[in-house]
Structures are given as structure tokens and as C-alpha cells.
Amino acid sequence: MTAFPTATRFEIARGLTRERGDYLAVLKSLREKHGDRLALPSPFKRFCFFGPDDVTALLASPSLDFGRTKNYETMKDILGDGLLTSEGETWRRQRQNVGPEFSSSRAKEFASLSARNAEARLATWSGPIDVFKETHLITLKTAGEAFFGSRVEQDAETIRSSLHAATRLAMGQMLCPAFAAQTLSRVTKRKVSEHARRIEGVFERILAARSDSSGPTDLFARLLKSPGATPRSVRDQAVTFLLAGHETTSIALGWLLCLLASHPELQTRFREEGEDSEFARATVKESLRLYPSVPVLTRLVRTPLEIRDMRIGQDEQILFSPWITHRHPDFWREPNRFDPERFLSGVPAEGSYFPFGLGPRECVGKYFAAEQLLAVTVTVLERFQLSLAAGTEFRLRPQATLQPARHIELIARAL
After folding, report:
1. Would you state the pLDDT for residue 37?
2. Please, which residues have CB within 8 angstroms of residue 88's CB and are 6 or more apart in sequence?
């Protein structure tokens, strides 16, 4: 069996200091030094896989027995036992029930709602805009209406701050040294529970405001009719889709608008060719390549596995990174360059592109996300020419999602 090169504790500590806590930059430098397979030493204890062949072999196989790592367990306090956090038969039943709700045809309906909400928000734009705040508001409003038939904008700050705080805590658990995991778990659970109570209050108001007498047709109402559904199980699903779904889409949309703002010629082509063009879809794919909303994926090995020339023991944790693999120079020409043309001239190597994950647990909302990104972007570009505010840098503060290190302002000039 192939031995895994192991990074040293000193390399990791020095890298985190140099990169100001940007763990993606540290993992990228470790990959460049050690290769596509890497073991993080005790007390971190992770096996990292960055090559497309390993990504495909491990993530795409339906037969491998993986569980959720501790950071997913942490998010259960807020998301409940929904599709993102559940496992085993519970997850399989949920996936089967919600699958039809996230079909490509449903995604088209969702895109129309997204465009209308974007148009309403654009009416408020004047001068510099905080792009990630704006995309958060647009996607949250759309998700609230689609999933609960409710307006949730008044709770936007509570949802944003509590969700971001909880994901930071969950990410801290994922990166936590093994010897400190038990202590950190207790502290994290207490803090996450505080944020969970705030969000639970939001959802109590949302559900109380729903008019059952009017026969609602939102996702919550439809899921209540699915086999074995209970109000609590459906609440967990809808909360997962509202919180996790709108968050990942708002991050992806923010980076897409930032990239287009830095390439005025691509804005022009996007307008000319339209929302349904191959170029528009290639632009979205290329943005997701450079800035996947979820930059790392983790799995817990439930039973020892031997696959390809490697052996991994029970209860080991493995890590994949779309952000790193998407920028792998062996599989992407000029990997750091924003170039939608690359998706018009060929198909990426299997396992080299997985912004929504891969295999059985690939994101069920990928069609919804892609259609929303297209619909909102074309709505924005029909009305505005975007440019970056002076001195703008694309620095990262990666958490569970790919957050910018600081606010990014765009200049929106009306056309």
C-alpha cells in the first residue's frame, strides 16, 4: 500500500501564521510540496485527497461507508436532522422524498421568482454596494418565499449573524486538534445552542404567519404530504434548505458578480448572448470553479477501506477540497485565471470539477443554484454596468463557506 506523505506540525503552524488563518492557502502550499495525497499529523489527524482520480474513487462510489464528521453534528442544533446532517436510512428516505422538489423543471420556476426579487432589490441600488450583503438579501427573500411562502427579510440580520457564527464554530471543530476535541465540543455546543434558539424564534414566527386556510403551495406544504412526514421532520428539511441553501447560493452569486465586475468585456458578452446561452452557463461554471461556495468536504470512515493502492482505517477522517482541486495546474490551464471559454472548449477531467460535491451526496439543490445564479446575474447586467471599487482585493476568510476576508464594494452604474 502507498504511504501518505505527512506534513509536520511546524509546517501547519507556520502556514496558518503566514496566511493569517487562511487554511485553504495552507493546504494549497502543502499540496504543492507533498503531492495530491497528504496526511495531517496528530493532533489534527486527517487524510487529504486532492487528485481527481482519488476524488472520484472515494466520493462517487455508492458502496463506501462514510459518516458525518463532528462539524456536521454541531450544525444539527440549528438545522435539525435534515438532509445536510442526517445519515443512513433517514438520509436515504429524505433524499428520495425531496428529489422531485429539486428537479430541473422546478428550478426554472424558482429562477423566475429569483429574477423578480432581484429586480425589486435593484431598485434600491445607488452608489457603491456591499455585494455579499445584497446577494444575501436577494437569495434569502427568494428562499423564504419558495420554501415557506413567507417574507423573511426582517429577520435577515438574525439569520445571517447566527448562521455565520454557528458555521465558524463548526469549522473550528473540523480543524481542531484531536486532543482538544472533547473540550471544544462542549464549549461549541453551548455557543451553537444560543444561536439555535435565536433562529428557532425566527422559524416559529415564520410558521405562525403561514396561512394554512389559503392552501399554501410552498415547499413546506408539499413536503408535509410526503410518505412518513411529520411537522418536525419537514421543518428540519425546510430550515436546511432555507439556511444552508440560501447561504451557499448567496456566496456563489457574490463571487460571480465580483468576477464579472473585474471583466467588463465579459459583462458585455453576457448581455449580448443572454441567459440561455452556452456562454452564460460557462461563466457560471467558471465562477464556481474558482470560488466554490463550500471549499472543503469531510467524511468519517465507518469501516476500514482499501481502494486504489491505499488503506484507511476505521474512524479516520478524510478531507477533499473543491477549491484546491479546481486550481490544480495539472488539470487546469492557467488555473487562477477567470476564463469561461474553458467550459466551451471541452469537458473537465472526471473528479477535477465538483462544486456541488460528487456521488450519492451531491447537492440536491444544484439545479436550483445554477438557475438562480443565471437569473439574478442577467437581471443585474440588464440594468447595471459593474466595476470594482478602488483598491479592491479578493482576499478570503474561508469558513464552512467561502467568505471574503472583508466587505467587497462594487460600483453599479445604471445603463
Report:
1. 94
2. none
**Count of CB atoms situated within 10 Å of the CB of 393:** 9
Q: Phi first, then psi: what are they for 16, rounded to 5°?
A: -65, -35
251-283 pLDDT, tens digit per residue, is 999 999 999 999 999 999 999 998 889 999 999
Q: Is 339 exposed, middle or buried (0-12, 13-18, 19+ CB in 10 A)?
A: buried
Widest CA span in the chain: 63
Torsion angle of alpha carbons 6, 10, 15, 16, nearest 10°? 110
Cell, residue 294: 463550500
Output phi, psi for 396, to 5 deg. -105, 150
Q: What is the pLDDT of residues 26-48, one digit of tens each?
A: 999 999 999 999 998 866 678 99
Measured distance CA(326)–CA(331) in Å, rounded:
8
Say how far apart CA 101 and CA 105 lie, in whole Å. Answer: 9
Q: Which helix (H) or strand (E) holds 58?
A: helix 52-59
Reference 321, options 348, 289, 347, 273; nearest CA is: 289
Strands 396-398 and 402-404, by their bridges, are antiparallel
Q: Where are the alpha helices (DSSP H) in 175-263?
A: 181-209, 219-223, 231-240, 246-261
For the chain, what is the radius of gyration of the CA atoms?
A: 21
Q: What separation in angstroms does the CA of 343 have from each of 275, 279, 287?
A: 16, 8, 11
Q: Between β-strands 409-414 and 128-130, what pairing exists: parallel, antiparallel or unpaired?
A: antiparallel
Among 239, 291, 289, smallest CA distance to 395 is for: 291
Is 321:308 a contact under the CB 8 Å cutoff?
no
How far the first Cα of the chain sits from its last, in Å, is 61
At which residue does the C-alpha cell 478602488 appear?
390
Give me 268's grid cell. 458585455
